[in-house]
Write a structure and sequence with these properties.
By secondary structure, this protein is an alpha+beta fold. Helices cover 32% and strands 32% of the residues.
């Protein structure tokens, strides 16, 4: 009596199981490689987006202060004093010491109506590496240069604009 081993088989052999696991392992390693690469690209894009957004917010805040100023005084190339229509005096400058890369608006309310005090509010985080204000000759326009840096990648963004104050006397 002959037995038919291959006809009555109801399972996987060890070789079939090893080959199947090796194929699954190859597919999973490829998927993990794609996932990690796309995760790195996503993180880099998010950092770039944050850097660009911070630079735009800082520049928009500076331009708004200059545009609605009644009087503008340059203390130095990196500090600008803006007097508003209500008499409030605001100074735009970088911080000092540990906060040397933070853009501040220092508000002096003592000369404004109603009197208050002095307060400062940061516009940006610790990202701004360069801030310059230039006013040439009799021109009323103020040229603003703002540079931000991403500390983790070292990438820099430079924004430049010219702003004309509408209420300047």
């Amino acid at each position: 009596m002959k037995r038919k081993y291959f006809v009555a088989q109801h399972g996987l052999t060890l070789i079939e199981l090893v080959i199947g696991m090796a194929l699954i392992l190859c597919l999973l390693s490829g998927i993990v490689g794609l996932f990690s690469g796309s995760l790195k690209v996503w993180v880099f894009g998010k950092q770039q987006s944050h850097l660009n957004q911070t630079a735009r917010i800082a520049m928009d805040s500076i331009v708004k202060e200059i545009r609605y100023a009644q009087q503008i005084t340059l203390k130095n190339t990196s500090s600008l004093v803006v007097t508003k229509v209500n008499g409030e005096i605001r100074t735009l400058q970088l911080g000092e010491g540990l906060h040397s890369k933070t853009l501040y608006v220092i508000i002096d309310k003592t000369k404004a109506i109603p009197p208050g005090g002095i307060s400062s509010s940061p516009i940006t985080e610790n990202l701004v590496t360069n801030l310059q204000f230039v006013q040439r000759g009799n021109s009323k326009a103020v040229l603003v240069t703002l540079e931000v840096i991403n500390e983790s990648t070292g990438e820099r963004r430079l924004l430049r604009t010219a702003c004309y104050p509408l209420n300047l006397q």
